[in-house]
Amino acid sequence: MANTKQIKKRYDRIAKYFDSLERPMGTRGFAKWRKELVQQATGKTLEVGVGTGKNIPHYPDNVNLTVIDFSKNMLEKAKLKNTNTSHNITFLEMDVQNMAFEDNTFDTVITSCVFCSVPNPVKGLKEIKRVLKPDGKLIMLEHVRSNGKVLGKLMDWFNFIPLNIMGANINRRTKQNLTKAGFNDVNVTELWKDIVKYFYVKNEKLI
Fold first, then answer.
1. Where are the domains of the chain?
2. Can you say whether the dihedral through the CA atoms of 117, 122, 125, 127 is positive or negative?
3. Shortest CA distance to 60 belongs to which of 48, 33, 42, 47?
4. Does domain 4-138+145-202 have CATH number 1.10.260.40?
5. 77 near 103, Cβ under 8 Å?
6. How far apart are CA 20 and CA 22, in angstroms?
7. Confidence tier at 15 by pLDDT (50, 70, 90)
């Protein structure tokens, strides 16, 4: 399994080509799903893995937005693409597995096609739970491993290809990882087959 340093290096390497590499995903509805995703953000919001910043223009104007990415080159590209935005944005180079924010900081956390690349997804989700306020919401657009007997196995067998090229896994079990991280109130909406999904998560915790 690739470690954080290796995956970060891969994303730094492909940052200048990343939008071109992702362009085919737009034809499968990802642009529409991303827009709908971020428009649900309210209050003090954190976007984890902002990448090249393609979600930023779609956030509501009244959101207080902080965006992070562990790839310096991806973050710089996001800044350049959003220099003229009307949004109040804080850009930070930071790893979701080890965030510097205080407990109970954010009302909303957004991820879109991020947890395929986090080396230790449960650790990253535990960090999100920590920085979310009680009853805060985590909203995710993620692709996951199919439950289909044949397709699931194929995704396991061929996972090494995108992992070695981009640092992304195609066989993550995000629902199970959310449970392992301590999230109990998880609702799932399937968007494309049983692979692309919205995860709506309420942060239930004692304070």
1. 4-138+145-202
2. negative
3. 42
4. no
5. no
6. 5
7. low
